[in-house]
Amino acid sequence: MKKPPFSPESLMMSYGYKPELSEGAIKCPIFQTSTFVFKNAEEGKAFFELAYGLREADKDEQPGLIYSRLNNPDLEILEERLSLWDGAESCAVFESGMSAISSVLFEFLEPGDLLLYSNPVYGGTDHFIKHVLKKFGIHTLGFKPGQSVEEIRQLVEASGMADRLAMVYLETPANPTNALIDIRACKELANSYSNPKKQVLTAVDNTYLGPLWQHPLKQGADLVLYSATKYIGGHSDVIAGACLGSKELITRLKTLRTFLGNMAGPWTGWLLLRSLETLKVRMEQQARNAQELADFLRDQEAVEKVYFLGHLKPEDGEQYRIFQNQCLSPGAMIAFLIKGGEKEAFAFLNHLKLFKLAVSLGSTESLAQHPASMTHAGVDPAERMEFGISDNLIRLSIGVEKAEDLIWDIRQALSHVNSWKEEAVPSLV
Ligand SMILES: *Cc1c(COP(=O)(O)O)cnc(C)c1O
Q1: Which domains does the chain have, with CATH numbers?
Q2: How far is the CA of 167 from the centre of ligand 1 (A)?
Q3: Do 169 and 207 form a contact (C-beta atoms < 8 A)?
Q4: Counting atoms of ligand 1 from 1, which one is nearest the CA of 361?
Q5: What is the pTM of this model?
Q6: What's the rounded Cα separation, in Å, for the pair 256 and 259?
Q7: Which of 181, 205, 207, 214 is closest to 328 using CA atoms?
Q8: For the chain: N or C, fewer Cβ within 10 A?
Q9: Which pLDDT tens digit goes with each residue over 368-399?
């Protein structure tokens, strides 16, 4: 479809949908149907020829609707609209973020290949890389936050499997500490291991800042991944995922999706279409709130350190440089260290009144959680410390509420956390 000269937020209500095909309905209906009726046998044959790649499409010939595991209007329109934010050629939507991620790893890796990946990654991804890929004979090599591209290259060389490197998988900013990874530099690393027969792909999980505030494809990445459960869905009421990239790569991914059968259903597609209409206003309000909250937290006596991209300064060197080059906003995710340990962290969490104590992120309501015992409980304890996930770390996902109300809530919850003071008093005897 030719892209009209409007910004994505102007197109989210209409792009890719033709009311005349749906009785004039202004909104795309939910096409709750498993199969589609062909006008005649010749049409059915033509649709299948395209779906199975038996011949090239004629000029202006669109793939026809056959069966909802292959395609469905709610998914196709959603994929076209999602592509606009990242300026992607093509998009594939899945029933969860994990199914998008696992499908990408399955489609683009083969037994004997080496996967290089950043740490920490989302807990489900971590498990899939460490435990599932291994069963398929895929080698994996993780690098740590803060390692330079030169150090990462040395790691690849030392692995003895440099010639088998097939993909660089990144999650930036890293969850939960907001540590940044230079996408462009990693893409150059991938290129340096590519040859005319083999392109080493770079894939980026952009759930934390996308699709508004970071565009990995523009930084050179080949594939961008989302848990659409987060900002894209944005209302804590749907699980979904997406992958975007070139037509060539996404066609391969959609073919695997057809045979795994892990596409999103029409109801999920419809919910996300609705969510996309307010994506920008939601995310902008969330980012404004997050900046106010992060500034407030920084000044609190009970708070030891705040991890927020909006607080990066030139003195922070590499991290500041990456932020300037790669991110369009500090986003709406904050992590902070409370003075004390798990006891103090729990006292804070248990006294919140407006924030909800729940995992997930990017939704309209603000959420708080304790990574060490919740989202990252499955990570090896020694690695947890290396990644900065200590017992006094709290992660906040900021919603669209009134900033003053959120600040009120944090202030009153912090006022219940006093034990660190007692423990900090030096003994007089
Ligand atoms: C939630 C999340 C996932 C997994 O997505 P689901 O939709 O829960 O399957 C992957 N990556 C990141 C960064 C996430 O936050």
Answers
A1: 8-33+68-276 (3.40.640.10), 279-420 (3.90.1150.10)
A2: 20
A3: no
A4: 15
A5: 0.95
A6: 5
A7: 214
A8: C
A9: 999 999 999 988 899 889 889 999 999 999 99
